[in-house]
Amino acid sequence: MRKQTFLAIFCVFLLVSCSQSQVQVEQYEQRDGYRVSEVYIPLSSTDSMAAYWLLPDSMPADGYPAVLLLHDHGAWFTIGKEKLVKPLQDADTSLLMQADYWVSKFFEGAYVADSLASHGYAVLVPDALYWGSRRVPIGNTQVGLDSLKRLNKMLKVMQPAFYQSHLKTTGQHWFGTIMRDDKAAFQWLQSRKEVNPNKIGAAGFSMGAYRAWMLAADEQAVAWCFAANWMTTLEAHGGALPNTSAYSMYTPMLDSLDYPEIAARAADRPFMLIYGANDPLFSTESVEEAIGIIRNNQPHAQLHTVMLNAPHLFTHESLNLLINFADENAKN
């Protein structure tokens, strides 16, 4: 009965997604030196993806340098893009509360996309499938933080069932769908007349880092890649096993290639990989082994690595490294 109920909810989720696909809503909010809007990026004739779109006030003569900024996993599904962009002022109080909670917990209080926009970058931050506006619509988000924690734990338990349902419904792997969507977001950036198509980078923290170098490995037009706190080997990671939250990151490429072998495809362009000396999710030994594999598999590697004295966090130092790396590769 529970499975049937879940599948019924999933079908409703698909219908809701379809009904939004034709709505290209843009709500603008002016901030200090840049503006933020919510946009819907078409994915197909029946689907679209919500994203925040940040544009600085002053556009360079050759167009904005841009960043496709990708959010993390964190087993917190009720927000996605809001983990990186301060929500619009007219957003509901729950979004504001969750966003502030998340950036305080993992980003030392900094909204990364807003920081990049204030430094002159056009930034696109989409919701990944099953996060934020694209999660299964169950539970009430207009509640306190403790109730939201319980809701996200429930969503984490339901995640494998969602993955299987999505696989049967679309014939695609879940992360394969996320990769498709990230590529669509990148192509949307390329199509914008305000953006310099030769100066678009990809960046992220945790799962967002994984998404960033996966995209760069697949899309040669990604000019540079910045990945914070997601690199290891399959052996050290234990693989992407069914019935785990990390199964969302499985891709058929992992049947024949290791993580760093895929990442090596992105290292022929500027690629900064940062990791934490005290990260409980990715040991320094596994990261450094993976770095060696990247270098061995990419004879022309432009790989820059930095180990920070930090746990699984995107610190102010991480943010400064991102901005400086972007400046070196997009503004010079």
Q: How are the secondary structure elements laid out?
A:
Layout: H1 2-20, E1 27-31, E2 34-44, E3 47-56, E4 64-70, H2 93-106, H3 112-118, E5 122-126, H4 145-170, H5 174-191, E6 195-205, H6 207-218, E7 224-228, H7 234-237, H8 259-263, E8 271-276, H9 284-297, E9 303-308, H10 316-330
Parallel strand pairs: 4-5, 4-6, 6-7, 7-8, 8-9
Antiparallel strand pairs: 1-2, 2-3, 3-5
Structure description:
The chain has 332 residues and is of the alpha/beta class. It has a single domain, classed as Rossmann fold. Helix content is 40%, strand content 20%. The chain has helices at 2-20, 93-106, 112-118, 145-170, 174-191, 207-218, 234-237, 259-263, 284-297, 316-330, and strands spanning 27-31, 34-44, 47-56, 64-70, 122-126, 195-205, 224-228, 271-276, 303-308. A hairpin with a 2-residue loop joins strand 1 and strand 2. The longest helix is centred in the middle third of the chain and has 26 residues, at 145-170. Mean pLDDT is 88; it is low at 7-12 and 14-23.
